What we know:
40% of the residues lie in helices and 12% in strands. The chain has helices at 28-41, 62-78, 90-99, 116-123, 148-165, 185-193, 195-199, 213-218, 233-245, 256-268, 290-294, and strands at residues 7-13, 45-49, 83-86, 103-106, 127-130, 173-176, 206-207, 250-253. It has an 8-stranded parallel sheet with strand order 6-5-4-3-2-1-8-7.
Amino acid sequence: MHVDHPVVIGVLNVTPDSFSDGGRYTDVEAAVRHGVELHSAGADIVDVGGESTRPGAERVDAPTEIARVVPVIEGLARAGVLTSIDTTRAAVAAAALEAGATVINDVSGGLADRGMARVAAEAGCPWVLMHWRGHSRHMNELAVYADVVAEVRDELLQRVDDALAAGVGPGQIILDPGLGFAKTAEHNWALSARLDVLVGLGYPVLFGASRKTYLGRLLAAADGTPRPVREREAATLATSVLAVAAGAWGVRVHDVAATADALAVWRATGSPRLQSSAPSGTPAPGETSARSEKE
């Protein structure tokens, strides 16, 4: 799937406890309907997740996660909607790919389940490697950096090296800085300001700030109360436009229609992309990254 515009990935959480829309799409019919709506609104890919990764979230087991996501992915595949599976488990990713998903979105970057690299390598599908230091229950304790931009870059490159060593093709890899995952608001802003550092690694970069807590804190009321989740869309749009202007391949958002509108305005200015569109879901087979060419 080669596209001439920044990729928009729509969020579809089929969980009871996700921070933004938990419980709204636990019914398969409602979830499929919403996924189709996201696609119609401009989502190139709909990202289906069956386990919440919000700070402090408790884990569910793999059978529960599979039972949540597979019927939804099957329904969306029948409707002609491209999907990604948002999971850290190899077994869930394999089941989702069998059901029709075409991209793996792994918030652990392959660290949570070392079998994920094998699944991605065998499938030959795009694999989003997000920067991650630990599961949701403990990740806030791990938000300690001397230089967050340099450390996130280096840790992501280690994930890339591990993926390549496991047989994953360089053209399958997408990087994500992991905003909010083992990161404070200050870390998120620093990474946003220096997104060019990750773009410069030569892999597509996915940016996901949608409705996150640090935006709510930025827009807090006079008494310090964070802006409610559903009143963070304008801030989300701003982050998305700034990210693609910095060269991001795509953005992961809840409000697809508004994002598509904002990016259409950005494209109308004739602003050049700093990084070419990639995947099939990502880069075409045989494409190499700047890093792999050097090595």
